[in-house]
Amino acid sequence: MKVYRTRVTPKQAAEWLKTNTRNRPVTQKRVELYASQMKAGEWALTADCIRFTDKGVLIDGQHRLTACVMANTPFETYVAEGLEPSSFNKLDQCYPRTVAHAFGREKKKHYNLLAAAVRMVWLLETSQRIAGGQKLSIDEAFEVLQRHPALERCCDVAQECHGPTCPLPGSYLAGFMTWCYELHGDKGLQFWQRVGGGIDLQKGSPEALLYKKLMADKGASTRIHRDVVMAYCIKAYNAYIKGKPIAKLTFDIGKEEMPEFAKS
Hints:
This protein is α+β, with helices and mostly antiparallel strands. It has helices at 10-17, 28-39, 62-71, 99-105, 111-125, 138-147, 150-161, 170-184, 186-197, 206-218, 226-242, and strands spanning 2-8, 49-53, 58-60, 75-83.
C-alpha cells in the first residue's frame, strides 16, 4: 500500500470521481457542508485518507471530492492506494470523536450534558426542530459555547435539578435555561428551575401547567413527539414572561409553526 500527501484540485477530484463505481450513496447535505468549509478556508488536513483499491477504484472520499468540485476549491489530503476491495466493509469502524469527547478533553464539567445542551441552543439559534436536523461539528460546538458563555453555568444548575421528578431531558433543561437566562436574566432561569425541580409551582401558573403536562407524558406508554414537547415549553414560558394566564397547552405538529421564545 502507498500513502502520500497531495493537493487535490477540482479537476483532479473530478477525474478521481470517475473511478467511484462501487460506493455508498452520496449524502448531499454532507457534501454541502464540506464544500462550504472548503470555500471558507476552514477545511483541515487530517490523517483521513482518500482511499483507492489496488485496481484504482475509489472506496473512500467521494464526499470530499464531490465537495471540492462543488466549491471549485482545492484541498490538502493524504491518499492511500493499493487497498483490497474487501476493505470497504471495514472502513470507519473506529469509535468516532464526539463533541462530548472534545469537551471532556478540555476538562469541561458535565461534558456529556454540555454537548447536548450546546446542540439544543444551536437548534434555537437556527430555528430548527429537535427531530432531525444537522449534526454539529466539534468546531461548531465550540463556537456555540463561545457565543453563549452562560451554558456552563446553566448546565451546573440543570444537573442539580435533574432527577426522578424532572419532566425534561437534561439537554432541554440546560439549553432552555441558557436561552432564557440570556433573554430575561434570573427570571428566565427561575422558570426552568421550578419546572426542572418541580418546586414552588403555584396552582394555575404556566410552569405548573407545563410540569403537570410533561410529567403525565413521562409515565405514558405513548410519548409526545419531541417537537411537541419543545412547543409546549416555549408556549408556557412565553405566557410566564408576558404574565398572561394559560388554560391548556396544545400544538398541532402538522399545521402550526414552531413558536419562538418571547424576547420581552
